[in-house]
Predict the 3D structure of the following.
Amino acid sequence: MTTLVLSHESYLAHDTGSHHPECPDRLRSVLKALDQSALTGLIRENAPEATAAEIARAHPGSYVSDILAAMPGQGLHYLDGDTVVSPGSAEAMMRAAGAAVRAVNAVVAGEADNAFCAVRPPGHHAESARPMGFCLVNNAAVAALHARSVHGCQRVAVIDFDVHHGNGTQEMFWDDAEAFYASTHQFPFYPGTGSRRERGEHNNVVNVPLAAGDRGDVFRSGLQDDILPALAAFMPDFVIISAGFDAHKDDPLGQLRLTETDFAWATAAIMDMARKACGGRVVSVLEGGYNLGALADCVTAHVETLKDH
């Protein structure tokens, strides 16, 4: 297998302040881990900037221009109580979405079997008209809708295993008959969405809420029993992974008890289903993960699985 890893130094210039958990050191730890791991043969690229039109498939209207207009000339500006931008955030935002777009292009073209986007800011809380929860642009949704619009992958799926529910992706896909969203997440928890009752207009939303303290066996059962059969029935043409690693047992922002072995298992299970449905077309986009050591270990296990499974 060949795996493309996309990142960019501009992500480090997205300054969120000295005590914010979504900090540049997250990306430094990820890239250092990938550089030092036993992985060989990864394809590395710098992420390009997305165009406003590419982002507008997920965030229509003046969304991009409004966000860019809110960027400060110096210092920090809070879009909400959690979501911070700085002078470097504009380029980081455009290149985070651009990584997702480029990854889809590369996989469809056969330049790589799959791809991992080591990006920040994350994206899955960003709704069609609202940034929130550290997120500016919904990178996973941008990727999925690009696959549909440009490459004819009509039926698109996003699988999300972040500790927080991806309310933004769910909102974007809610009434789209040819989009599928599934999530495992701690519940009740931020952002308050993600109950099993939330099914979407076409029953293409599958939420598997997990209780604080749940371990890998419960997580794996939710994927195996609920999400993967629904994904198989949906038969996607392309699969995006919203790869958040804050469900790890050492993460400070959640109370689930997963390990890097659980994330590797989930990655392999999603890949197996994608091979049956769509020739293994998978793009993974980094979401959360706030313990630097755990994040590095989880990303390494995730990318090793993408490359070697």
About this structure: Residues 3-308 form a domain with the Arginase; Chain A fold (CATH 3.40.800.20).
